[in-house]
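Example record

The entry below shows one chain as it appears in the dataset: sequence first, then structure tokens.
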Amino acid sequence: MNKIISRITLMLLTLAMCGQLHAQFTTTFAKNITPGQQNGLYYSLPQTMLKLDFIIEEAQLVKGPLSDYASSYFEMEDYVEYETTEYKLLDVKMSSVASPDPNALFFVSFTSARGGSKLQFDVLPNGIIRSVGVGNDVETIEPLPVTQEQPQCCDEEYSSEEFVGLMSAGKTNAMLAKEVVDKIAEIRKAKFYLVSGDVETAANPETFNAMYKRLDAMEKEYTSLLLGKRVAKKVVRTVYVIPNKEVPTQTVAKFSETDGLTVGTSGSGSMITVQTLSLNTTAAINAPSQSAVESMTYDSKVFYRIPETANVKVSCDGKTLLEDRLIVNQLGAMLMAPVTNTKLVFDTETGQIVNMRMQ
């Protein structure tokens, strides 16, 4: 019996010695590292950052140079009394990008162990871990390209050179206003003749369209001298949001028709909120708590993540603008993987291990 116990003890000691030989590094949460410690490297797991592109119509109301006479000639029509800018929220588009997670930042301290094989850590320029023990053979998993709608002008801005001749020296604004109104009447009469078929070229559809468009542009330009004009364009404002497990609903911006979009909570207008609710796809995993991860040191192990699926809803003043299901890394489970005699490849978008090779 004593001989059997001695043999078991010897085997355990041998295994322990082998484990020590291959324990080439330790992994520690970054904040526990003594300042100035340089015998190692930092790496992080990626967190999900939501990218919200708000498509907004930005309209400038431009006062006409002869607006003082607008009510005299256009009693029933509104005109621009003072210049201002109006905003209208048209749409919102959502995508996600990966960024280093400060709550999953670790320090790998290398130790010397005779007989241990060389170990290679590969990280991206931003510090996100890419592979362990693989070297340059790893294939990077590229994220899918995100297409973004290009800003477009909502209204065309018309220009006519003919009215410039009216602005000659020696004429009062009252005289100019009368000439502009007379010019508008002439243009409208020409449009009537064109539509009624009194113009010979109206028989050709292409010629008709070109002539009508030209007359319509001239009328708008002359009318704007009295009524003013509304020049609108689409702009895209981007807001980045980091979902938080402890705060599922976050106020990320405010929107008003007079001030537009203001990032944060200090602006005026309706609140824009982002609600991120976990679907608990990783709830069955018995993962260590965040406090356990931060307080302990692990030999020859690296952390990886199994990301969570979440329902993400963007709302403005309680009205849903957009709702979709996305992968949210930081809501998932953070686990440890042994590195001894193992090669690991990570998905740099989620932190998940996508390839494990036993040596």
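Notes for this example: The first strand starts at residue 25 and ends at 29. Confidence is low (pLDDT under 50) at residues 1-23, 146-151, 153-160.
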